[in-house]
Amino acid sequence: MTASMVSVCTSASQAATRGTGPTRATGPRTYPSFASYVRARQPVLLRTARSLTANPSDAEDLLQTALTKTYVAWDRIEDHRALDGYVRRALLNTRTSQWRKRKVDEFACDELPEPDVTPAGDPAEQQVLRDAMWRAIMKLPARQRAMVVLRYYEDLSEVQTAEVLGVSVGTVKSAVSRALGKLREDPELTPVR
To answer: Backbone dihedral region of 53: left (phi > 0), alpha (psi from -120 to 50 degrees) or beta?
Structure first.
């Protein structure tokens, strides 16, 4: 321990034993040793605070609160060599208090807030529909069939479909429009509508 640190710790300890702490009449007293402690240890303590909370701004607030508690208790702290432990304990206690006081956004109610799930339907009927759709798509001309598959089954945009097939975007739009018209008229898909 350096000589200046010993004198700072000794002067704070002597002030605490003499009972010359801050009073209302004289106003709050500044502690030069507290300021030097904060300047020296703030980066390390801030890393500790950041490990206790995910938000960097919350970590800074948490450290500020813990340092305020340390400042208030500065005269009562007997061993200034253990200040890091005192501040870490203040950080942990403050964070625990914040966690316990957090606002809960969930409320008990009579009805469930989730929407009613519509039944998926009979898997056999879904398979019949898929088979009918593929049979209808297979009736389309090869070029229209390729464009419908790329657009709606592969989920490509009109531009991407045009690039894959080496045609213009306008060609894709008109061909897909004609193909969808033919699918709407397909007698096998009529019961589905």
So the answer is: beta
